[in-house]
Q: What sequence folds into this?
C-alpha cells in the first residue's frame, strides 16, 4: 500500500512601491495505514518578490538677465549743471529640493522573515509494521529588487550688464555727467536626495 500526499503553494508578488504580503503555508497528515505501507508527505512553498523602482528626476533652471543704464550727456551749454542717470540691476534666486525615497520597499524583504522554512508541515502516525514513512518540506524564497535612478540638472545663466555713456562736450562751463551702475545677481541651489 502506498499513500502519497503532495501539497504545493506559491505566492508571487510584483510591486512598484511598498505593499504587504502574507506567507502561504501547507501541511498534511497520514494515519492508520497497514503493514508494509509506504507513506509520503511532500510540501512545497515558493515565495517570489519583485520590486522595481524607476525614478526619473529632471531639474532645469534658465535665467536670462539684462541690465542697462541710460546715457548722461552735457553738451553745447554756456553754463551747465550735472547729468546723472539711475542704476539698473537684476536679482535672481532659485532653490530646488528633491527627495526621492524608495526605502519603504524594504518592508517587503522584512516580511520574508515569516517565510523562515516552517511553511510546510506534515505528520504520519499509526502506520503498520515495516512501513516506510517520509515527510519532505521544501521552501523557496526569491527576492529581486531593481532601482533605476536618473537625475538630471541643468542650470543656464545668461547675464548682460551695460552702463550708458557719459559725455561732456562743447560747454563753456559745465558740471559732470555720471551714469549709474548696472548689475546682475544670480544664485542657484539644487539639493537632490535618493534613498533606496
A:
Amino acid at each position: 500500500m502506498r499513500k502519497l500526499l503532495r501539497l504545493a503553494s506559491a505566492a508571487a508578488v510584483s510591486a512598484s512601491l511598498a505593499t504587504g504580503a502574507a506567507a502561504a503555508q501547507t501541511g498534511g497528515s497520514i494515519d492508520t495505514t497497514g503493514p508494509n505501507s509506504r507513506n509520503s508527505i511532500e510540501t512545497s512553498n515558493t515565495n517570489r518578490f519583485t520590486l522595481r523602482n524607476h525614478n526619473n528626476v529632471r531639474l532645469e533652471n534658465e535665467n536670462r538677465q539684462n541690465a542697462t543704464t541710460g546715457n548722461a550727456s552735457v553738451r553745447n551749454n554756456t553754463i551747465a549743471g550735472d547729468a546723472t542717470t539711475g542704476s539698473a540691476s537684476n536679482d535672481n534666486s532659485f532653490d530646488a529640493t528633491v527627495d526621492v525615497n524608495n526605502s519603504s520597499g524594504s518592508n517587503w524583504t522584512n516580511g520574508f522573515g515569516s517565510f523562515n522554512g516552517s511553511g510546510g508541515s506534515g505528520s504520519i502516525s499509526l502506520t503498520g509494521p515495516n512501513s516506510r514513512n517520509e515527510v519532505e518540506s521544501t521552501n523557496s524564497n526569491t527576492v529581486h529588487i531593481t532601482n533605476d535612478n536618473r537625475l538630471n540638472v541643468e542650470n543656464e545663466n545668461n547675464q548682460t550688464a551695460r552702463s550708458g555713456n557719459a559725455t561732456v562736450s562743447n560747454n563753456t562751463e559745465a558740471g559732470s555727467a555720471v551714469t549709474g551702475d548696472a548689475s546682475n545677481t544670480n544664485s542657484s541651489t539644487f539639493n537632490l536626495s535618493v534613498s533606496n
Q: What stands out?
A: The helical segments are 106-111. The radius of gyration is 40 Å. The chain has one domain: 2-195. The chain has one helix and eleven strands.
